């Protein structure tokens, strides 16, 4: 079993107030890829993804005490997504967003109960996925009001990304990732400039199952230590059996 792979990540912003937001998608999307979108607006306004509930599935949408509004959606790609999608907000708002492309996963992602607050330290919630201890990919994300920037990401999380509006009347989104085999994870906090209202989330992605085949240890009941050759090929020269190293 191996960890799910982040094959792409892209961020985008909408710099003017609008109810029709253009969100960038990663390149090279193939059928079966998992897309996970973090989407935030600077006000208390409902967000709707294209054909939501069928093409894009909401994990959560949360208001941070009036502003911002932050949610996470996922999609199993069909390979025909294109470079962008249009996301609607009930009111005219600025927005910030990120979208991951993930391969080597199983089933659908899970999320912890979103946390909210007003400080310089958005603090993602603890999450215990239903699948137990596996090679899980963990994503920590947050959205904050204003045009601040993130100066620190949760400890041990890597590849942090921050996309924010230029205007102080906007918002920002940040995320980072961790590969960890454990039953649960409670990420440390982000650090952002200024004391602002925020929403923070934790997402877990289950790894794909290991391929079926030879489990190692013996061949047809004979211990490997006692086998010198297979089909006249010396053991030392054999790299795989039935495609399994």
Instruction: Please state the CA-atom Rg, rounded to the nearest Å.
Output: 22 Å
CA-based shape: globular
**What is the residue-averaged pLDDT?**
90
How much helical structure, as a percent, in the residues?
A: under 10%
Separate helix tally: 0
SSE ordering: EEEEEEEEEEEEEEEEEE
Low-pLDDT parts are none
Please describe the structure with a list of short key phrases separated by commas or semicolons:
six-stranded antiparallel beta sheet; 18 strands
Map the helices and strands.
Layout: E1 5-24, E2 34-41, E3 47-48, E4 57-63, E5 69-76, E6 84-103, E7 105-111, E8 115-119, E9 134-145, E10 150-152, E11 158-164, E12 171-182, E13 191-192, E14 196-207, E15 218-219, E16 222-223, E17 229-230, E18 233-234
Antiparallel strand pairs: 1-6, 2-5, 2-6, 3-6, 4-5, 7-14, 8-14, 9-12, 9-14, 10-13, 11-12, 15-16, 17-18
Descriptive overview:
The two termini are 13 Å apart. This protein has one domain. It is mainly β. The protein has strands at 5-24, 34-41, 47-48, 57-63, 69-76, 84-103, 105-111, 115-119, 134-145, 150-152, 158-164, 171-182, 191-192, 196-207, 218-219, 222-223, 229-230, 233-234.
In short:
0% of the residues lie in helices and 54% in strands. It is an all-beta fold and 245 residues long.
